[in-house]
Structure formats: structure tokens, C-alpha cells
Amino acid sequence: MELDEDVSRFVEECEKVELKFQQKDMYSKERLCPYKSLSIIILDCVYSLNARYSCALNVIDRYLLECDNQDKYAEEHTLLELQNRIEEYDVKYFEDRVGNHQYVGGEEKAKVCRELAKLVALKGIDTPKGLISYKDITQLETEIKQIKGIGQAACDYLFMLSGDLNRCKVDVHIRDYVENDCHIKGLKDREYREMFVKAAEILKEKHGYIELTACGLDRLIWEYKSGAENKVCRRK
User: Fold this and answer.
1) Is residue 157 located within the same domain as residue 172?
2) Residue 227: left (phi > 0), alpha (psi -120 to 50), or beta?
3) What is the extent of the structural domain holding 7?
4) Co-location of 119 and 174 in the same domain
5) 150-203 pLDDT, tens digit each
6) pTM reported for the whole predicted model
């Protein structure tokens, strides 16, 4: 009952703020999940943690400089290639090559990428579709979160980038919006996801935003709260 009340309050706040619902390209699947390679998804996921998103984009661009195909949206950037590159160079040299020596959860991000790529590959997963359709998602998530530096938000973001649109990444911007704009406190990550899924369905049915998903709603709110308010949306 309490979560239903939170959903109603959340929807009302979303309706007060113009989140560019009419611009469907803002939350289309192509926009939300642009990558076809798990290795690029892993780099984006890990290097965007606790950092400006531009850091992740810079790492991807520098990583691709030494690839035969420098198109970040191509399918042929394999997990094995990413693992081999980190192991061949060793972590420090890899960090020099991509121009980033950041840590997350006390671990070097390059190591986190290597361990995540290794785990997913050992499961026989080599595509984004293979990740989100894995036979035992619960167990897979548990093992992913055992990697030092990977928490629930990072795990959700990994699946979101891979095509699971019924998730949200509870980062600083999403939490700020929910807690301070909507005055909804104390939600667990699972409850955030449930609230976003329900809210997206309500907004879709009420206003005809046919393509809106939890992931799309996450994107619109993230744009609003990340400093792009004046460009992305305005308050009524």
C-alpha cells in the first residue's frame, strides 16, 4: 500500500516537470541501448561509476584507437579482446593507454572490467541479448555483485545497456529526484525498480507515451537532474 502511494506521488511529480515525454527519440531503445558489443557496454558501465559520464566516453574512444574497427557501435568488439588487452598490457599500462586510473569500491576500474568480462564469458555469454536472457538472472546478478566495485546500481546499469528496459540505475541524480523532489524516502533498490516500472506504465496509459519504459523514465530524470535541466526540460 505504501509503495502504491509512493508511485502516485512519483507520477504526479513527473507530470509537474516537463521531461520531454513527447520527444520519443530521447527514450527509444536505440538511444538507451546503442551498443551491440558487451565489451563496450562493460567499459561504459564501469568507467561511468562515481565519475562524469564523459570519463567513460573518453575511455571507450581511447580503447578503440587500437582496434581494427573503431566504430563503438559495431558488434565485433569481443569480451576476449577486452580481457586480452588488459592482461597483455597489465592493468597499469592499460590505464595509461585509456587515460584513466580511477578506482571504484577500492578497486581499479580496469580490474573490475577484466573480472566482469571474465565472469560473463565463463557463463557462455557473448552478446547483450545473451546477458539479459540468461537462464538464471538472479544467480548471475549475485555473482556479478560479488566482483569488488560492482553494486546494485552498476549491475542494473549493465543490464539496462544490454537491453533490459525494466530497470533503473539508482545513482545520485535518481536518488536526489526521488528523495528531494518527490519527498519519497527509504526505498530499497528493488522498490525503486518496481516504482519506475509502475510509473512508466501509468504515464504510458494515461498520456499515450507508448514507448516509455522504466529505463526511459530513468533517462529523462537523469537528464533533468544532471545539470541539463535548461536544455532538456523546464518546470511548469
Assistant:
1) no
2) left
3) 2-30+168-232
4) no
5) 999 999 999 999 999 999 999 999 999 999 999 999 999 999 999 999 999 999
6) 0.90
